[in-house]
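Progress report, Aim 2. The chain analyzed during this reporting quarter is listed below.
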Amino acid sequence: MIPAFTDKKLLERAFTHRSALGTSRARSDSNERLEFLGDAVLELATTEFLFAQYPNEPEGVLTTYRSSLVKTTTLAEVAQKLGIGDKIIMSRGEATSGGRENEGILADTFEAIVGALYLDQGYKAVTAFLQKELFIEFEDILREGRYRDAKSELQELVQAKGLPAPHYRVKSAVGPDHDKEFTVAVRISGEDQALGTGKSKQQAQQRAAEKALESYSA
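Predicted structure tokens for the chain:
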């Protein structure tokens, strides 16, 4: 559950996708600045949680654990459970094209809510929210092995089948320099196996690898 906000306009801004600006639905700025803040707060809170929870794990393992918690797919899943998609203020065109189910938009909005909560109620309120809604997911992530690096896992899988290592190719890069969305294809044996999108090439590559792994295990 999303905590009650003292500043309702701050929460409204967290839910406002940039596509809504200039439309009759837009009542505030977009959530991009709050997302920027929330990303940093989320990373710190997640780092503290893992540092305390796993005192004997080395840095590399903790980094991998953290990546599994703050990656787009995990945040999007939590956002869906919280019903965030239905609350996002976006243009009709964005909604029609599946914006309310878009993993990137859901994850960005979750980060914006974290940023807004930090401004509204402080760091302690953020950690309490994340403990209840996000960190509780890590037990399943750990048990199911979803913390593993998807690119490394895919490479091991295809090479065990006697195939060449996967090759990643950028299909598109859309948006301004400060807010690009990359689409990357993972190619195996000369054929594109899956597409992934992300705010960096590395993130898009990981998502493509995750989708390829899903298809191999299906």
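The longest strand covers residues 167-174. The radius of gyration is 18 Å. These observations will guide the mutagenesis work planned for the next reporting period.
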